[in-house]
Amino acid sequence: MQINVTTKALDNLSPKPAAYIAYHASGERGTGRIGVRVYSSGRKTFVYHHFVGKTAKFQTLGEYPSMSISSALEKFESLYLCSDVIKVTKTSGTLADLFEAHKTDFIASGKRTYHHYKTLRFTNAASGLLPKTTIAKKITSNDVRAVLN
After folding, report:
1. SS3 24
2. C-alpha dihedral over 61, 18, 57, 71, to 10 degrees?
């Protein structure tokens, strides 16, 4: 569940039979997030959810309403900037990265026919249709057909 962390939104969070967390709708993924854990008793606490390595961690920041939203957000900002928090960045690989990964995969699999990647690279370079810096996920089947023709 996602909410905008405002006083009205927090007051409208109703308890359910099991505790749940409503996260702040920040629009970011793969980073630390602030949320409000609502217990079945109606108690509400601010929590900071982040990853250290591959392990999910939850840290309680304080109890609402004794801790204000602004102080919870300040505490969140200070924790968000910690060096141990892993921030996931998604980058798109280029065609050169794709060819290198193909070669590495063949070598790791113990296949001796990995030398054909050189032919693939040469064919691609000779066509001039797909530069090495082309983003791999934007290549369509029509692009591949044009190179092979």
Report:
1. strand
2. -20
pTM of the model: 0.50
Tokens, residue 120 = 């693939």
First vs last C-alpha separation in the chain: 51
pLDDT, one tens digit per residue, over 38-51 is: 898 888 888 888 77
pLDDT, one tens digit per residue, over 97-124 is 777 777 777 777 777 666 676 777 777 7
Question: Are 145 and 129 in contact, with CB atoms under 8 Å apart?
Answer: no
Concatenating the DSSP letter of every residue in 26-64 gives: ----SS-EEEEEE-TTS-EEEEEEEEETTEEEEEEEEEE
**CA-to-CA dists, residue 13 to 18, 23, 40, 149, angstroms:** 13, 12, 11, 61
Q: Which helix (H) or strand (E) holds 117?
A: helix 116-127
User: Distance (Å, rounded) from C-alpha 68 to C-alpha 62?
Assistant: 9
Name the pairing type of β-strands 44-52 and 55-64: antiparallel
3 state DSSP class of 22: strand
**Across the strands, what pairs with 20?**
38
